[in-house]
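Trying the structure run again after the queue cleared.
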Amino acid sequence: MTLTSQEVNYLIWRYFQEVGLELSAYALDDETKIHELDELYKNKIPIGSLVNFIQKGILYTMKEGEVLESKSSLHEFAKELNLLSSIKHTNTEIVPPSTNTTDNNSCFTRVLKSLFTYPSSMHSSFNPSSEKVLAWGERKSKSVICVINDQSQIKIDVEHYVIENEKGNDITLVSWSRLGDSLLTCCENGEIRMWEADGKIKMVLHNHASPIVHVSWSPDSRSFLTLDSDNVVIIWDSFTGKARQVLDAGLKDRVLGLDTVWIDESKVVVPGLKNSIHIFQVSEKEPVGTLYGHSNTITSLAYYKELHLLASGSDDNDIRIWRSNSLNSAQLLQGHTQPILSLDWLPTNEKFKNPDLSKLVILISTSMDGSIRVWDVYKGDTVMFSLNENGVPFVCSKISPDKTKIVTGDLDGSIKIWSINYQSLEQFLSEHKLDASNTGTNIQSIECVAEYEPNTSKKEEPDENDILIDDDVDEKQQSGNDLEDDKQIFITSLSWNKNGSLLSVSYSNIDSVVIKVDQL
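Done. Tokens:
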């Protein structure tokens, strides 16, 4: 297989367009007339092909050298070459975290224990205005608001009254308003109820006909958005309960996206058809802008208000950065080999002391490939990187409110907490400066500082300071504490409390837990 020079030019021309370099694309086309190949290739060559070719070429060259050195057969070479092993065989040097500390135990990963347990749950959420108030959803249309004290707990049950034995009556999602004065509980049948913080019912909403998969509140909490599994988006007035806007993509056989984000009180970003991203003005039927670039489901969105930058992650393994004044992506971040789980902007302007470095735009991402990456967005470089032990995939992740820690969940239900060391990162960036001569040769690592392993065989024996939530004894005896062989546990949600001292982990098929992490 060979490539002609014109085909190489075509890939470069396409790359220029994908990353928003319109002038470069125009200049190349003006000299080569490369657009003439577009009719032939535009529907056959996927987005990101040039970078994909280069990455695979690097891997092939590395493996070819190993084959020649070890005199292995090409058949053995082909068996070894896969995306997961390519992460481990990268030629990037991982710089270990700084050891300049007086804490003799800092090099060990701390093993965490649960503060208390609560029943198996699909979703939980800490109140953003109170560090000790947690809400979670259970089966049989029941939700709980719990106030956590030092040696006890106060529980308020709130329920959706549905027909007994009716299918689809589990609580799939709970969400506090940004002010913490209202709680939404979403039932599997699509019903939504809004409650006051003390458990009093405020309103019942019936417009959805399928499970809610995502809720997002506007910055002022005057509106909230709900997205269901049939790709129906509804924007509600949180005071009247009226639907301000209904967006139905008309596609029910696949999920278009799992995330939305508010730009301001009147503009919202939602997934669209053909893996696009729509920007809607509230109450307007048509989007004010549509962004194309991804080739699969949109999984994560993050907006940087001060710089008007939008980050989007997808099942196509790519991260794209968009500017507010362009419909073309300004940057393409590639390196993950599995779908993107989460994206968050890091506040370097607050954390870095060096005024020059504080101007850097830094993004952190997690992926199902079991890796965490921190990116210099403008340069497109990975500046921090860590891979989960043995390459075990992540299934969920959540950054702490102060953005100094990020928690990840594995397939087996184990939890890891990673430290984002801004001082170490700033020192590293200051020393290496990431210029063209050393970019990609050194990367700072992200340290795993704590782990939690769920007890899947029996209920944990509480410490003397543990808080236990006593639910119906007969129900617990009927379900049993031992995990049935045919039931696999899953982490269904993660939630940090206001100051990042407590972490709620919701599990299916075993008790959920709240973990104390304030001394990390």
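Confidence is low (pLDDT under 50) at residues 72-92, 97-106, 434-441, 458-485. Worth checking whether this holds up in the mutant runs.
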